[in-house]
Each structure stands twice: as structure tokens, then as C-alpha cells.
Amino acid sequence: MREADPVERAVGMEYYVSDAAGVGGRLRADPEDFRVTEIEAFEPEPVDADPGAYPHVLLRATLTGWDTNDFASALSNALESSRERISWAGTKDKHAVTTQLFSVADADPETVADVALSNADIDVLGRTGRPIFFGDLAGNAFEVTVRDPERPDLVDAITDDLRTFAGATGDDEGADAAADDPVTVGVPNYFGQQRFGSHRPITHEVGLEVVRGNWEAAVLAYVGRPSEREPEETQTARERVEEIAAGSRDWQAALDALPGYLNYERAMVHELVDRDADDPADFRAALETMPSNLQQLVVNAAQSYVFNRILSERLARDLPFDRPVGGDVVCFTDSDAPAELTVPDTDRLQRVDENRVDTVTRHCERGRAFVTAPLVGTETELGDGEPGEIEREVLDDVGIGPADFDLPGEFHSTGTRRAVLVRTELETERDPLSFSFALPKGSYATVLLREYLKVDPADLG
């Protein structure tokens, strides 16, 4: 086990499980170097189905260099339609080639098929009775090329470490397999750096202040807290806001200090100006100027940070990830998932007492069950034994508990659980160095790739 980069440790990812040094190199030198294809779990009716019963047109788009939100806006403009009529299953990286599903409400299939946008190929699949919702996918398949690796010879050593971490799960031959044969590897199911902000990892800090009920501190964490990875103008503006908050509390002066491109920050401070803010309710109102999905995101990021901390402590204590110990809570496999992907079903949970450890271990070895940790919310029941001890110690250290997630509006969360280990069948090629693998929804490709590259998280994209 190897200590992680300081930026990763700040978001709870404290270790690499591979002891080997990294291969180095660059991701996303070109969008073609990072290909993501959704593993679909949404079936349409034929295009000629009754539009009254099936008013949504489902399409598959292959996009090069497109932000998902920007594509949705461009598509709505091309259709002369409201942006609110377009939905999708998963947000993807801009610096990539992505293949993903979208739905458009009350649209003509031929008109959708005829839309011409640069670097976008659109294929109409059929009609559906409801829009596609975020999460309506089983997972994602990745094809990733690493440019300019410094130590490609270390790939095998890293792969061996990740095979060991995955446990006895596959039929591959390990060291006897050919170099390019697929092998089963595993990594901690960390939330990747993107969850918290690749260049300014602040989202979880905002969320933690919300959960603690510190609305003013949450606003100032979002608007202030300069990062050395930001442009100098932005850093200076955030520093000025912090000075004003600590001194005169002249919110108009704070608004004047913020450059126009900091849209959400300006909206928050504008609300403070309008309210002449000096009351917790005023700062909560400022936070609520964010879109509802971002309000949810900050609390989700706080949950993700706690989850990462729990996984890191489990690593530090040398507890297994591929099998349970007494006190763990496991979930079982989603029986409806596509055959090519094993997906945990966190609606099917079971506590593991000492008498059941061996039985549940066999389920885990066969890929039928997964050890979990909590994404804490109001309905969270913590584990028992040493796993429960870890969960409680991390929550105490952070200064929050399940009841604290009983929050107003979009900030409220009931919580859930998440598998602590993610396994995949990994294929590698050496010239150029590339990796092919698939992950269930919610798991991060960069969490696997960081084990190989071991570079600055900003370089993982």
C-alpha cells in the first residue's frame, strides 16, 4: 500500500493499493484517447409507436469533445425546443469520445434524426413512455490510451497487485496468462477527484458545512477558499471576499470583486446584497440560488468524502475488501444487469454476523455479494463490529451523524450504501499503452487508472 497524492488525500483517498511506482504519462491528449460507451439499460418501443402513449424520442449520440449539458442545449436549440424537454442517463467527460442515450419529449423522430451538429452522430432508436432518467444505465465501457508513459514496464507489477486486491474472482491464469489477455483486477470503489472538483476540490467542504447547519460557512467555502490551481484573477477575487466576510461584511463590495464568469458565486453574493445578509436564513437562501442538482451535489459530495475516508481507514486496518468480516453489511448482485457486467444491488442488504462470515464469503468469491459502506443519510444504519467502529469514528472526526441529513429542500438525503470494491476484466495493450474495461454506474475510471499512472490528479482529467 502506497500513500496517495496530497490532493487525493484531501478528498479521503489516502492510499494506492498498488505498491509499485506509476507508469506516468498523460490522459486525454486527444479526445480519441478516452472513449466511453454506456452499457444501456433502457429499452424503447419502435419509432412508429403511438406518440400519445410514447411521447419521448430516444436517441443514441456519439459525441467528440462535447460537455453533456452543452450538447443538450445545442440539441434543444436545433429542435427549437425547450432545454427542459431533453434528458439523459449519465453525464460524461468533455475531453472524450462518448456514446450515450438521450430522450426528447414531444419531438418528431425524423426531425431529431436530421439534426446536424459538429462532432455529433445521432441515431434515433425509438419511442418511450417516459423520459430517460439520470442513472438509467447499467454502467460504462472504457477504452483509454496513455500517452508518453515513462515506465510502461511497471504495468504487470501493478496489475498483479490489483489482481491480489480483487481476491479469487476470475478464471484468468494470472502470471501464466498472455500479456494482453483480460485479467480480473480490483480497486477500492472510491469516488474520484471529479466528484469534488478536479482543480478546486471544495464541493464536499461546502456540503459538510450544510450538513453541520453552518449556512454562512457553506457560502463562504463556495465563494471564498481560493485554489492555487485557479487563475490568479479568480484567486484574488476569492481572497477579497474572505477579507470582506471577516471584516466589513460589505456584500456589494464582495459582489464587485467577483469576475463575471463566476456565475454561481455572483448569484449567491447578489442574494446576500439583496437581503443585507447577517442571518443564517439569508445564507441558506444564497445557497439555494444554485440549481437544484448542484444543491444535491454538495451534500452528495459530503457523503462521498465520508465514504472515501471509511474506505481509507479500512485499508489502514488491513481489513479485506473482497470478503466480509463480522459486522459488515453486504449487498447482492442485481439480477437484471446485463450479462457482461456485475452490478451491486444496494436495495438487497444483509448484516453479516460471525456465524455467517464463511457463507457470505463464498458468495463474494463467486461475485454474488459485495461488502458495502454507507453513504450516510437519515435512514443509515451503521455496521457492527470493527466496520461499524470505523464508520462511527470517521463520522465523529468529521463532526456529523445520520440525523444531520434531515435538511430542508434539495439538501435532504436519506442515504444508501455502496460497494467498497469494484472489480473489472481488464485488457491492456502496450503500443500504445491502452486499457479496456467496464465499470458499473457510479464507479470512476480514474480510480482504476490512478493506480497505474500515479500522477497529479489534475492530469487524470
Write up this protein.
This protein has 461 residues and is α+β, with helices and mostly antiparallel strands. The chain is built from 14 helices and 15 strands. α5 runs antiparallel to α6. The protein is globular. It starts with a strand and ends in an 8-residue tail after the last helix.
Protein topology:
Blueprint: E1 2-3, H1 6-9, E2 15-16, E3 34-40, E4 56-64, H2 68-79, E5 86-88, E6 97-105, H3 109-113, E7 120-128, E8 137-145, H4 155-166, E9 183-188, H5 203-211, H6 215-223, H7 232-246, H8 251-257, H9 263-275, H10 280-287, H11 292-316, E10 329-333, E11 344-351, H12 357-365, E12 369-375, H13 385-398, E13 416-419, E14 421-430, E15 433-440, H14 445-453
Parallel strand pairs: 3-6
Antiparallel strand pairs: 1-2, 3-8, 4-6, 4-7, 5-6, 8-15, 9-14, 10-11, 10-12, 12-13, 14-15
> How many E-type strands?
15
Distance between the termini: 24 Å
Order of helices and strands: EHEEEHEEHEEHEHHHHHHHEEHEHEEEH
Main sheet attributes: strand count, strand direction, barrel closure:
9 strands, mixed
Oligomer: single chain
Quote the beta fraction.
Answer: 15-25%
Structural class: alpha+beta
Point out poorly predicted stretches. none
Radius of gyration: 23 Å
Globally, the shape reads globular
The number of helices is 14
Helix content: 25-40%
**What is the average per-residue confidence, as pLDDT, rounded to a whole number?**
93
